[in-house]
Predict the 3D structure of the following.
Amino acid sequence: MTTASLFEPRRAAALPPILLVDDEVAILDGLRRQLRRKFAVHTATGGAEALELLTMQPVSVVVSDMRMPQMDGATFLSRVRVGYPNVVRILLTGQADTQSAIQAVNEGQIYRFLTKPCPPDVLTDEIANAVELHRLMTAEKELLATTLRRTVEALTTTLSLAQPAAFGRAERITRTVTELADLLHVEEPWELEVTAMLAHLGSVTLPANVLAKLDAGRPLSPEETEMAERVPVISQELVASIPRLEGVAEAIRCFRTRYDGKGAPVGATVGEDLPLAARILRVAVDFDAGMAQRPSVQDTMAVLRADAGAYDPRVLDALVRCHAVPGHPATQEADVADLEPGMVIFDDIYTIDSLLLISRGTVVTEPLIRRLENYVSQGRVGHRILIQN
């Protein structure tokens, strides 16, 4: 074995991965030889094979032929767009059919449409440009996701100190949303998590006694119900002014809309047209409200399934699978001095004068620990706390 061959796997692993799709093996072999020095080249002889490969091998760019049996390039790239929106798509075809080009652009939202035979240097340059575009898009999304998540965490942590019941509830709902997103294989769940947390911002307008009723699942008066129903509207208005959170604001606005459209105004967005974040949030919110009224997961599930038209069937099924194993979470008692960020408060914590300090389900943070230590030092809270394992 030569020295060069020893370093070949390491060099290939460092190259940007691309996927070439063509039903002619000879063409794939020629393209692989042409491109292998600059890219880690993967190949597939059809759309179905390529889609299966994408489930196992992340790539930056897909280059597909147009004319292939079973699944043409336009159809294949449109499926890539839906399942792997970050992958940059290029169509390479020998057809001079303008209609095919239009179909490919509209359905697959392709980055480039190149005709065969394509000069090697042109193809190499276009793929390199597509790789760079993928890098920039990925970096921007990662920065956006991280920045927004940290901003939301700072905001909700601060607000939780003022309204512990509302934001303990928000954290429980967000955990359910995260679990559902995982079961539904949502590729980028950060927007769903942000939606779940920010949907409760409007709760700061509610009186403490209304928040307590909501948290305990107790009936509200007509006036209190009207207050609670305004919360999503207030939350949506607050979020709508934040750049890049337009999708979050829209999901908050319509998350109370039933999946089957019952009771919705004519022309309202319903069914699969509802944002996925809204459909998941509806299930999570109603599940949390149900659990506040009854201790049994199975009883709560039965209530939700009895009104199945309100929910996306796939999301409701994911909730059932999420709680397939019955039973209550294990708990343990911990000293306030031993609390660590990331632990979960199992039960509401009240001061000796019956002030709700921390709501059940709240995730422990450094500010929360300091707040508890201050109350313990004043003798207003016991130093032993129940936490969830």
